[in-house]
Amino acid sequence: MKTIKKEKLISIITPNYNGGKYLEESIKSVITQSNNNFEYLIFDGASTDNSLDIINKYDSKIHYVSIKRDKGMYHAVDKAIRFAKGEIIIWINSDDILDKDAVLNVTKIFKNNNIDWITGINGYIKKNIKISGIPYLYPRLIISNKCAHHNYWGFIQQESVVFTKKLFIKSGGFKDFSNNASDFHLWKTFSNFSKIKSYF
């Protein structure tokens, strides 16, 4: 008899602080996913703009909300990941949006492959025009030697990275919440344990 692999729960986390300008669009991109195999967590650093009104508007669609002062975005992300119940983490900032099939595609990839972290193609929106990024492969040696940056190989874009909670915990998480490039250093630490897989 063929064994059917069980789908792993995905946790989508969003850190926010005074990101009300784009927050609603970001939330909508999550709650309208084509696959609902996820929990959605927002960790807000006690915003003073209209963020809390937006969060309250969609409260019934969000699985968990934390509104508490923090030490910045990376601290919020760290707390959210450690709190999350999912085995797989999608980290989307409050000024980003998810493709409608993001959860569907991630679920398929992690269900059928023994992997710890992946990257895809990110993109951006300029004057209401969606522009796709360039696909990259990231050799482990490039990441571990801190060469995955703009001046050499090209950054690993946080928006297109998905990883397991197990890998995050094993790596120790963020080492410095105040460093603006803490995700860059997190990827380097990840590379000590596992090879990133690129999907286009």
Structural features, described:
The protein is of the alpha/beta class. Helix content is 32%, strand content 20%. The protein has 7 helices and 9 strands, in the order βαβαβαβαβββαβααβ. The mean pLDDT is 88.
Q: What's the topology here?
A:
Blueprint: E1 10-16, H1 20-31, E2 38-44, H2 51-57, E3 64-67, H3 73-83, E4 88-91, H4 102-112, E5 117-119, E6 123-126, E7 129-132, H5 140-144, E8 161-164, H6 165-171, H7 182-191, E9 197-198
Parallel strand pairs: 1-2, 1-4, 2-3, 5-9
Antiparallel strand pairs: 4-8, 5-8, 6-7
Q: Which terms would index this structure?
A:
200 residues; 20% strand; alpha/beta; two-stranded antiparallel sheet; 32% helix; globular
The biggest sheet amounts to: 7 strands, mixed
Coarse structural class: alpha/beta
- For the record, give the distance between the C-alpha atoms at the N and C termini, rounded to a whole number: 32 Å
What percentage of amino acids are in beta strands?
Answer: 15-25%
Task: Show unreliable segments.
Answer: none
Give the tally of β-strands. Answer: 9
So how many helices?
Answer: 7
SSE order, one letter for each helix or strand: EHEHEHEHEEEHEHHE
Q: Per the principal axes of the C-alpha atoms, what is the gross shape?
A: globular
Portion of residues within helices: 25-40%
Radius of gyration: 17 Å
